[in-house]
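Appendix B. Chain record.
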Amino acid sequence: MCKKVFTSKGYLKVHSRLHTGEKPFACNICSEAYPQRGNLKVHLRLHTGEKPYSCNICSKAYPQKMHLEAHLSLHAKEKYLACYINNKIISSKSSLKTPEGEKPFFCVICNKAFTLKTDVKTHLQMHTREKSFSCDVCNKVFSHKSSLNTHLHAHTR
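Structure tokens predicted for this chain:
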């Protein structure tokens, strides 16, 4: 076994399955087995057709959050920036001066407003970057290991 230390017996139990290969959660339809209940829950959507994650831009739906996030990055590339001033859409390439206090640039994914076009570009990376750190307890995925570690403390409270 490895020398990882966990804050609870539950975390240790879930982690130890990586070493033992134990897969106690089996699909009652096809017998596919998983080490975590959350993995089985996602798998069952293949059989039920459930797609709980839908795009707020085009309404396309997905069985997993990470599939929706990948889809949203395509929208971000298609329609990178939009500037709305007095209800008129202005090309993202325009070099207008922004009146003080106004935030005419919007994220096409979450609608957060920004004063500068460059701030929107930086913000969009948060939506599109790969997320590779997964919580063993609830399957939430993070871009940074430090964010995952902070999240893990919520499970121990």
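Further analysis of this model is presented in Appendix C.
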